[in-house]
Design goal:
The complex is a heterodimer of chains A (92) and B (496). Chain A contains 3 helices and 3 strands; from the N terminus they run ααβαββ. Chain A is of the alpha+beta class and 92 residues long. In chain A, α1 packs across α2. Chain B has an 8-stranded mixed beta sheet. The chains are: A alpha+beta (92), B alpha+beta (496). β3 of chain A pairs antiparallel with β8 of chain B.
């Protein structure tokens, strides 16, 4: 696909934004897959228009406190914790 | 007009601000978790599936936050558009567990407002471009060193989801001093509205855009040539947390940019971090551009149509209106009226005092004595909020002539602030209660007997002699006598 809408630089840029480190072979693989995904979306252009339901507006709740999670519950899915904190790699 | 050679180094400063304020609601903006942080609270103890970004959790907007934003819009004389929407701002950083921040993009809740400031007697309106609602991220701790050298990040999501309003100004500031005046005024207005608590740590955070333009591009009325502004390189200074900090950070940045231009290096467009403890700004690497945030509509939050709330939600009298009323209602000068209305707590206290006492007495005590002594101690009225009743009692003692003005000002007020004691306790301990008539008469007799020379001088028509004798009596009474009545008593005694 020479007229691909996605080039390897786009993939590297998007991966960089998502803090994902890709090997060169992976970049090639994803370049192809990204292009395929965009192709699928083009299929939407062929779907006939339908009347959409009227959109909701002003959905709000009162400013009242509701019980949330305990610290233990909040942390139970975390791969690593320390002193009640979620623990992750250093970021800058 | 005289012809003047313009040096290439003559520059005008152009500053615009982005001010983040935490709204004083009970709950977070998209979930029912409390926003009240206890001093010693555990990390991650005020969270739920929504503010932790757990799969499937859905945000529901807090009506209280929307009301607060509408009040702010009214106070800033901004438009509340027919329809306003929420967007996702995508970025990958652990302070946001969802990998996006819920914010507003092309249809913010407040648009096109203004706020008037006064600097050195000149009033200027600062344009407000927009103000929008968004969620506060969580807080990070960089473990084992600074942000650059840390080996792990500890994350606390208690703050995540606290409602924020981000207020964006036009590039209307021409000096760091003006930004400080603006932020102080804005804080005052927000407190009057009851939507903001300045004593909460981190409740006000400021980013500033600053550039230098050729001073020729600035008109006399302060407006700036658009092209000159577009051409100028600018830095964005982040991490400013107070109005004093804003003035310091921007003064530093003005000097840094001017030096860079003078040395021929020029100013680079970049993001810089204000390091408050070192008093400098440091370059921050920032790779993301606006497009990289890939903003898109948040489908889980329906649009808002609340422009009619502007008519329905009342707001209280604001500082400017109150200042004008203080001038007309209490006959105060504009300086005293400004001082008394700059914060709501001071203005409320003044009005409560003025209810029971003469307005001039109330103004002197609140604006000059109390604020003066607080300022001297680097304290604010909020530091003595719970003790205002004691200050009223002090004024009452003076008003009832049970304590002299001098002792009240110089001893009792100062000790109240330094020792944290009630006025009566200090008056008793220091023996400052006004002396009774009989006691003073005794002092008068003593003074006359002990100072025959002065008495003779008085009879020879020397005015100074009487003042000397008054001083003697005041000393004997340890300042508790009233100089006026001592004067009368002495005259009567000496005339016999």
């Amino acid at each position: 696909m020479s007229d691909s809408p996605v080039d390897p630089e786009d993939v590297r840029h998007v991966a960089g934004l998502a803090r994902v480190d890709l090997a060169d072979t992976e970049v090639d693989e994803f370049t192809e897959q990204f292009a395929d995904i965009l192709d699928y979306f083009e299929a939407l252009d062929e779907v006939p228009e339908v009347d959409s339901e009227p959109e909701l507006v002003n959905v709000m709740r009162d400013d009242e406190v509701h019980e949330g999670l305990s610290q233990e519950e909040a942390l139970q899915n975390a791969p690593e914790t320390e002193d009640g904190y979620f623990k992750g790699p250093s970021v800058s | 007009m005289t012809a003047q050679a313009v040096e290439p180094t003559e520059h005008a400063v152009v500053i615009g601000l982005e001010v983040h304020v935490q709204l004083e609601t009970s709950t977070k903006i998209f979930c029912g978790c409390s926003t009240t942080a206890d001093d010693d609270e555990e990390p991650n103890s005020r969270t739920c599936p929504v503010c932790l970004g757990l799969p499937g959790a859905l945000p529901v907007l807090n009506e209280g936050a929307v009301e607060a934003a509408v009040k702010i819009g009214k106070a800033l004389e901004a438009d509340i558009p027919e329809r306003t929407t929420f967007h996702r701002k995508n970025y990958y950083y652990p302070d946001l567990p969802k990998n996006f921040q819920l914010t507003q993009y092309d249809a913010p809740i407040c648009q096109q407002g203004s706020l008037e400031i006064s600097v050195e007697g000149t009033r200027r309106a600062i344009g407000i471009t927009r103000a929008h609602l968004e969620e506060d991220p969580g807080s990070l701790q960089h473990k084992g060193g600074s942000i650059d050298t840390a080996d792990a990040t500890l994350i606390n999501y208690n703050r995540a989801g606290t409602p924020l309003v981000e207020i964006v100004t036009e590039p209307d500031f021409r000096s760091p001093q003006e930004t400080r005046a603006f932020l102080a005024k804005l804080e005052g207005v927000l407190e009057y509205l009851g939507v903001f608590d300045s004593t909460r740590d981190g409740s006000l955070r400021v980013d500033a855009n600053i550039s230098l333009v050729d001073s020729e591009a600035v008109d006399d009325d302060g407006s700036i040539d658009d092209d000159a502004l577009a051409d100028a390189n600018r830095t964005e200074v982040k991490n400013i947390s107070s109005h004093k900090g804003a003035e310091k950070a921007l003064a530093y940045e003005v000097t840094r940019q001017k030096n860079a231009v003078r040395r021929g290096r020029g100013v680079e467009t970049e993001t810089r971090h204000w390091d408050e403890s070192r008093g400098i700004t440091v370059s921050m690497r920032s790779k993301e551009s606006e497009a990289d945030y890939r903003y898109f509509r948040e489908a889980d939050l329906p649009p808002l149509e609340v422009s009619h709330w502007k008519e329905e939600i009342p707001i209280p009298e604001l500082p400017d209106a109150r200042r004008e009323r203080f001038e007309s209602e209490y006959g105060l000068g504009s300086e005293a009226a400004s001082k008394l209305t700059s914060t709501k707590s001071v203005a409320d206290f003044f009005e409560s005092v003025a209810e029971s006492f003469d307005a001039d007495l109330a103004a002197t005590w609140v604006a000059d004595n109390l604020l003066g002594e607080l300022n001297y101690r680097d304290m604010e009225i909020t530091d003595v909020e719970g003790r205002l009743e004691e200050f009223t009692r002090l004024i009452e003692l003076v008003d009832a002539e049970e304590l002299t003005v001098k002792n009240a000002e110089e001893i009792v007020l100062r000790e109240m602030l330094d020792e944290g004691e009630a006025p009566e306790t200090i008056v008793d301990r220091e023996g400052l209660g006004k002396a009774d008539e009989g006691e003073i008469e005794g002092f008068v007799t003593e003074a006359i007997e002990e100072n025959p020379d002065a008495v003779e001088d008085f009879h020879n028509g020397e005015d100074g002699a009487l003042n000397f004798l008054v001083g003697q009596v005041m000393q004997k009474s340890q300042g508790s006598a009233d100089p006026g009545s001592v004067n009368e008593l002495l005259r009567a005694e000496l005339a016999e």
